[in-house]
Write a structure and sequence with these properties.
Layout: E1 5-8, E2 15-19, H1 32-38, E3 42-46, H2 63-76, E4 82-87, H3 89-100, E5 105-111, H4 116-125, H5 130-137, H6 143-163, H7 174-186, H8 190-203, H9 208-217, E6 225-230, H10 238-242, E7 252-257, H11 264-267, H12 269-281
Parallel strand pairs: 2-3, 2-4, 4-5, 5-6, 6-7
Antiparallel strand pairs: 1-3
Helix pairs in contact: 2-3, 6-7
């Protein structure tokens, strides 16, 4: 399994591993890569399995396997441990890694990403919520892939626009963001492999592997945790994100960004970089 990473900073510095969400790829961290590297950290922004220039095998899009990919990446970069930062789906991978491979994670930071069990509980309580509807739509065979790719991936642009907070869709950089994300999702098989994780997250709840996963991650994370959440996230209410404190056993800092939606690292990049540096230097 080949995983593509973009790196910056000194090779011998403490490692910070950045894990993107849907529908992103490593470039979503374009602002944090130079900012963290300039502060003296070695930074690696990965393309998750099935995204970008990483391999796209036919299976392995469950959180068990994706966390294993991340752990292997830390080792392949020559580090014993890393501060792991995840956004969206990448945040779910980061939470899982911290629970299953605690020796690999020095600190954990998550953006727009409640603990997987907090999100699962919220979806069950409100099956009509926006997040629930997105997950439900992903369960259909083939149709979601066609929808994503239709009209030169126009759906991707609309997804970014709907998920954003006030102003980002009108910002000068949004056109480039939209074009790059559309191109990433139009790459061969990515529209399928990117959705497979959402399929697993729902279907596994009715299978033994889902029960084993829930039991495995239902324990306190043993490293400090930073949560950054957009106050205007249309899919994940802040109360759901704050419920993640239940799984934080070694300190928990929650930062809310006003006017920001589901993509804090892209919508408010300097605020996120500053929050990460404060957390890393604490």
């Amino acid at each position: 399994m080949q995983v593509h990473v973009a790196t910056a900073g000194p090779d011998d510095a403490p490692l910070v591993l950045l894990l993107h969400g849907f529908p992103g790829f490593w470039w979503a961290w374009r602002h944090q890569l130079p900012g963290l590297a300039a502060a003296g950290y070695r930074v690696a922004a990965a393309d998750l399995r099935g995204y970008g220039d990483s391999d796209r095998p036919p299976r392995g899009y469950d959180l068990w396997t994706l966390a294993g990919d991340a752990a292997g990446l830390v080792r392949s970069l020559g580090a014993r441990e890393a501060t792991v930062v995840g956004a969206g789906w990448g945040g779910a991978v980061a939470w899982t890694l911290a629970a299953l491979r605690p020796g690999v994670v020095a600190r954990l930071a998550v953006l727009a990403a409640p603990h997987p069990l907090a999100l699962r509980a919220a979806v069950r309580r409100r099956p009509w919520s926006r997040a629930s509807r997105i997950l439900a739509a992903a369960q259909l065979p083939r149709l979601p892939e066609r929808r994503v790719r239709r009209d030169d991936a126009a759906w991707v642009v609309e997804f970014l626009r709907r998920g954003a907070g006030t102003g980002w869709a009108a910002a000068p950089e949004f056109a480039e963001v939209a074009d790059r994300h559309r191109a990433a999702m139009l790459a061969p098989r990515v529209s399928h492999t990117a959705i497979e994780g959402f399929r697993w997250s729902v279907r596994s709840q009715f299978r033994p592997d889902g029960a084993r996963y829930a039991a495995a991650v239902d324990k306190p994370v043993t490293v400090p945790v930073l949560q950054v959440h957009g106050a205007d996230d249309p899919w994940i209410p802040e109360r759901v994100a704050r419920a993640s404190a239940r799984w934080c056993g070694a300190g928990h800092v929650h930062r809310t960004l006003p006017g920001v939606g589901h993509f804090p690292h892209q919508e408010a990049p300097q605020h996120v970089t500053d929050a990460l540096l404060d957390f890393l230097d604490a």
